[in-house]
Predict the 3D structure of the following.
Amino acid sequence: MEVIIKKDYSDMCDEAVRLIHQTWQKGENLVLGLATGKTPLGVYDRLIRLHREQQMDFSDVLAFSLDEYLGLPDNHSQSFVFYMQQNFYQHINIKEENIFHLRGLPDHIETHCREYETKIQEVGGIDIQILGIGENGHIGFNEPSSSLSSRTRVKTLTQETIAANAHFFHHQDEIPRYCLTMGIGTIMESRMILLLASGEEKSAAIQQSIEGPITASVPASILQLHPQAKFIIDEEAASKLARKSYYKWVYEHKDKVDDFLAKKRKRTD
Ligand code: F6R
């Protein structure tokens, strides 16, 4: 696990995009896992800009959605299929056949979830999973108390989420009560995980996830076990961290390890 603290939202998104671009440059078919919500929007905007201005090519990139509301058709303005299309896919040259969504109206829920997991395996696993975090520490739709080894499955939304969503829908019976989400076990199999958080309202969840015990009560705390999980957060989201200055110091000095060793070697030659 690595903690990267950036000045503000913009710097935070720049850092996430730098890491994605760096991995993409290695030339392999990049497999992305992608979250919705407000936090990753800056990352998608920057990737679109890289595509337009620096010809970043997405034709070999594969993308998997992290979650979806159950019961919404793809073209519903609140579906995550719609969100990804509007905010990212329609602006880049990703191939239709390389986009994988969890669907709001699957024929058979369990089969759909199982096939999604199989597809992730078939393409060799997710290289970079982008995550946001809920104020209660959730990742994807894995709310507190979700099994830390869960796989893609149906979940019941919390009453708070149902209430918070209500104003996005015209009719009461349209408001989603269930969702599909990659499981915590599924997310943990990604080679690299970039969890992004911005703003004071995320600071308690960030502190508990990074410095608290690993517990199903704070699902993001499981990332402490992942060797390539990076919390990329802004100053406000980092404001409750007890070891904030240490994380900053480590990050600022990590590229200097090679210099340090080179100097040592010269002295002992
Ligand atoms: C979105 C998702 C959620 C969000 C989280 C933060 O696909 O799975 O876990 O990442 O609720 O949402 P924002 O970024 O809107 O604060």
